[in-house]
Design a protein that fits this description.
By secondary structure, this protein is α+β, with helices and mostly antiparallel strands. The strands form 3 sheets. It has a 3-stranded mixed sheet with strand order 2-1-8, covered by helices on one side. The protein has a 3-stranded antiparallel sheet with strand order 5-6-7, with no helix packed on it. β3 and β4 form a beta hairpin. α1 packs across α2.
Length: about 130
């Protein structure tokens, strides 16, 4: 469910920016998010909006986690996350996923707002 709420937040920010003719939105997502679930939620949330038909590209961000039991550090991917925990690859102990649930919009193509002329081709950062 957190994937849906994260996608909803992204869509809200994009709609508030009054973007038009968007074909692609690129985001970076922490390991707590499923790229598939984010894309599915994005498609549902953009139906009937100016963003409908645009493609969400999810760039997974692998992050490090340190086991509280044995001290092993490893790169966490979304496949490693179960609920709000990851299991240590060395000893199997559970570790919290604090800090792995961030998401940011890193590009919108084409970067054009309603009522403004077309910007240069390519993606732009969106803040």
């Amino acid at each position: 469910m957190h994937d849906y709420h994260a996608a909803e937040s992204v869509v809200r920010r994009l709609r508030d920016a009054d973007l038009v003719d968007v074909t692609e939105v690129r985001i970076q997502a922490g390991a707590a998010f499923s790229p598939v679930a984010l894309r599915q939620a994005y498609e549902m949330l953009t139906l009937g909006t100016p963003l409908q038909g645009s493609r969400l590209v999810v760039e997974p961000v692998e992050e490090e986690c340190t086991c509280p039991a044995c001290g092993t550090t490893w790169g966490v991917r979304c496949e490693d996350v179960v609920g709000s925990l990851v299991a240590c690859r060395s000893c199997g102990a559970p570790a919290e996923i604090e800090g792995l649930a961030h998401i940011s919009v890193v590009g919108v193509s084409p970067p054009r707002r309603a009522g403004r002329p077309q910007a240069s081709a390519g993606a732009t950062h969106f803040s």
